[in-house]
């Protein structure tokens, strides 16, 4: 097997030969390549992957699907496995600040130049096959993981499971996180139908784990029909918690006094429990020590998930964008003392269930600061404010043209003891992070 350096350099393409030599130009072109932003189906992606020889990778594949908790679970897995000395490729979406966040190798974002070269390889291999933005990114991750000879790839399923581009690869282990109502247009409007779509990443005899303690029956039925050995939280492995630590056990293993991943976020324990079951399933090939696990859990952080930014007026940033994730956000906020008022900055995509999200957030909102997301899938502030009024929420609602404008105004008018909570979308939180980072610099 060639060394990692040899593998990468042997496929170098001279920048002058590329369709584009700047990442932003590639991404702009990809956005317009396919006639729709989202089109579920594996045929196009599988054909290109086959042309590139990507369908039977040398690395092992852990695929992660679910409504909420995918990014957190993947980040924990990545950190623990790297602690143990394995080379790991991590693929997640969407990104907050930079596209490069989506593809990380051994904890490092891939460089613009590598992305551009991989995009070009895919462009040449696709011929006249049209690909969506997400499909292009998925193939790029698989291509770069091969280039770097990773030991394992941990892949986030973007939408659903059965027809998501990530599913062109057979998962050696499948992890399903929480299952709730989201993306109804593509997945259905109830947990049973959504679970069936997510179960599409299961494979015959390949182990699967579900860290949702109340999985829909359809998920269990799919596993039985496929001959997939499925381990479920609360049935096949369990967690117990106290104030400072938590414990995990399966039929064969018991782990005690584990550090809590993120202090105020009990829901992360379910994600962590699923991660530990994945590690249990792969331990013969990829053993990890209890020290690797404890360090990975104690050092777990993920931008945009209950991210606390201190200051005269503290900010809490969370990408919650469906009813279940917002319920978790509200529960966590209630555990954090606040002497003053909670000012919400909210921007959402058009295809989300705005009323259900607003009903939950109204339990902790002292003021609503609604922004317009100008991207194609973004909702305008006037529409969101109209929906708030329909729910009877009229007081202390202000419209802003941007997250930056809302942050600056709230920083000016807020009192000591108040807090600002930014939520509703990855796009909203990403804009807040960029603005706050510029201010701090």
Describe this structure in words.
By secondary structure, this protein is α/β, with parallel strands linked by helices. It folds into 2 domains: 4-298, Mur-like, catalytic domain (UDP-N-acetylmuramoyl-L-alanine:D-glutamate ligase); 307-440, Protein-Tyrosine Phosphatase, Chain A, CATH 3.90.190.20. The protein has 16 helices and 17 strands. The strands form 3 sheets. Strands 4-3-2-5-1-6-7-8 form an 8-stranded mixed β-sheet, sandwiched between helices. Strands 12-13-17-14-15-16 form a 6-stranded mixed β-sheet. Strands 9-10-11 form a 3-stranded antiparallel β-sheet, with helices on one face. A hairpin with a 2-residue loop joins strand 3 and strand 4.
Q: Name the average pLDDT.
A: 91
| Strand portion | 15-25%
CATH class of the largest domain: Alpha Beta
For the CA atoms, what is the radius of gyration? 22 Å
**Straight-line distance between termini:** 45 Å
Assigned CATH architecture of the largest domain: 3-Layer(aba) Sandwich
From the structure above, extract its key features.
441 residues, six-stranded mixed β-sheet, 2 domains, alpha/beta, Protein-Tyrosine Phosphatase, Chain A, UDP-N-acetylmuramoyl-L-alanine:D-glutamate ligase, 16 helices
Outline the secondary-structure elements.
Layout: H1 4-9, H2 23-33, H3 43-52, E1 60-65, H4 70-83, E2 88-91, E3 103-105, E4 108-109, H5 112-126, H6 133-147, E5 152-156, E6 173-176, H7 184-187, H8 191-198, E7 208-210, H9 217-226, E8 230-232, E9 237-241, E10 245-250, E11 254-259, H10 267-281, H11 290-298, E12 307-309, E13 315-317, H12 323-334, E14 342-346, H13 354-361, E15 367-371, H14 381-390, E16 397-400, H15 403-413, E17 419-423, H16 426-440
Parallel strand pairs: 1-5, 1-6, 2-5, 6-7, 7-8, 13-17, 14-15, 14-17, 15-16
Antiparallel strand pairs: 2-3, 3-4, 9-10, 10-11, 12-13
Helix pairs in contact: 3-5, 3-6, 4-10, 4-11, 5-6, 8-9, 12-13
């Amino acid at each position: 097997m060639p060394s990692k350096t040899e593998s990468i350099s042997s496929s170098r393409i001279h920048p002058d030969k590329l369709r584009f030599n700047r990442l932003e130009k590639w991404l702009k072109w990809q956005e317009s390549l396919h006639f729709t932003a989202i089109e579920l189906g594996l045929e196009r992606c599988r054909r290109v992957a086959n042309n590139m020889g990507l369908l039977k990778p040398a690395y092992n594949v852990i695929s992660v699907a679910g409504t909420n908790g995918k990014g957190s679970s993947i980040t924990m897995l990545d950190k623990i496995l790297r602690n143990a000395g394995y080379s790991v490729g991590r693929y997640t979406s969407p990104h907050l600040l930079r596209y490069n966040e989506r593809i990380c190798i051994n904890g490092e974002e891939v460089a613009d130049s590598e992305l551009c070269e991989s995009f070009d390889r895919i462009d040449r291999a696709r011929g006249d096959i049209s690909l969506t933005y997400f499909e292009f990114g998925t193939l790029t991750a698989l291509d770069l993981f091969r280039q770097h000879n990773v030991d394992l790839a941990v892949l986030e399923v973007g939408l659903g499971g059965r027809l998501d581009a990530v599913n062109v690869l057979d998962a050696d282990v499948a992890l399903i996180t929480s299952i709730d109502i989201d993306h109804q247009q593509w997945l259905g409007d109830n947990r049973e139908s959504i679970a069936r779509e997510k179960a599409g990443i299961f494979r015959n005899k390949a182990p699967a784990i579900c860290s949702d303690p109340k999985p829909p029956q359809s998920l269990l039925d799919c596993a039985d029909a496929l001959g997939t050995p499925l381990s479920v939280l609360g049935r096949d492995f369990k967690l117990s918690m106290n104030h400072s630590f938590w414990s995990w056990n399966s039929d064969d293993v018991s782990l005690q006094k584990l550090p809590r991943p993120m202090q105020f976020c009990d829901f992360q324990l379910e994600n962590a429990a699923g991660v530990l079951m994945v590690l249990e399933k792969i331990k013969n090939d990829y053993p990890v020590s209890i020290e690797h696990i404890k360090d990975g859990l104690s050092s777990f952080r993920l931008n945009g998930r209950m991210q606390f930014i201190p200051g005269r007026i503290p900010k809490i940033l969370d990408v919650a964008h469906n009813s279940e994730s917002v319920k978790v956000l509200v529960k966590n906020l209630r555990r954090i003392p606040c002497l003053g008022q909670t000012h919400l900055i909210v921007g959402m995509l058009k295809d989300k269930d705005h009323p259900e999200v607003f009903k939950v957030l109204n339990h902790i909102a002292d003021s609503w600061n609604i922004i317009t997301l100008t991207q194609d899938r973004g909702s305008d502030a006037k529409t969101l404010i109209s929906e708030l009024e329909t729910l009877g929420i009229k007081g202390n609602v202000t419209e802003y043209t941007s997250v930056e404008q809302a942050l600056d105004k709230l920083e000016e008018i807020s009192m000591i003891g108040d807090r600002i909570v930014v939520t509703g979308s990855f796009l909203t939180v990403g804009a807040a992070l960029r603005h706050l980072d510029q201010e701090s610099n």
